[in-house]
Amino acid sequence: MVWTPLHAKIHRTIRSRHLFERNQRLLIAVSGGQDSLCLIKLLLDLQPKWGWDLGIAHCDHRWRSDSQANAHHVENLAKTWGISFYLETANKPINSEAAARDWRYQALSAIAQANNYQYIVTGHTASDRAETLLYNLIRGTGADGLQALTWQRPLTTGIVLVRPLLEITRIQTEQFCQEFKLPIWEDSTNQDLQYARNRIRQELLPYLRDNFNPQVESALAQTAELLQAEVEYLETAAQQLREKAMEMGMGHGALGIGDEEDSFTLLPLRLNRRVLQKAPLALQRRVMRQVLQQILTDAASFEHIEKLTALIIAPNRSQTDPFPGGAIAQVEGDWICLK
Asked: Which helix (H) or strand (E) holds 209?
């Protein structure tokens, strides 16, 4: 086996970031594109050092006329490498990127659970991280959206999603595939400029690279990395502040709403304004967003967060108009009451 600088880098990354343990079962999501082929080749070559049990999963969205041939191509690669192969095909064509992503993670989670894999591994790169940062920045977002692609996150109980290539650019994965003559399956939808992400990839990033910074993808990925640590800190601080502000606000004729454990909350819900007034605005907003996440079915908008935050210093009896679902927030002396 040829040991390249990329092998050494990924080996160090996995060890220093504690992405995997030894002798674990890893399910690798392989589309057949250059990033996923680079990923599976690296993990195969590192397998003797770590003792992993590897499997390949492929999700056919039925977007393209050649999608079935694409799936067969990946299956043949798995056979060549002697790896278990799992295929999930959509019942009907999925027409949006967001819907495709949700379906893909559900499919991968189901395969992992049925076959006892502890990790799902994807080939997201520093280039993907840069694209996500730009995409969310253009649409309007806070720090959370700018750092959205993280090294690992829990998908379901007992299964963790891991992205080991977040410090590797797409240019590097292409060079790696060429060096090892890996048979890349070219996805025609990646060239379709009707998708915003493709326009960022094909037009915006090359423009920024040529005119502003040749290393723009790595620079943006580093920004996302810095933001990730700051977001984790702020979320923890906001949770502690929220718990302090709610200490005396629970248990007054509370009515339970919500079906899932992680979205369960109590209405009426009370927040102590005096506690919140002492905190910086950044934490006040995060507290309000955390509260809204528990009473809204969809993500809280900037407007929702702002109108709830405004009640921290609003006159007594001030109130919001109804939030989606009908809840209203009102100032009652030292308290903000949601009911």
From this structure: helix 205-211
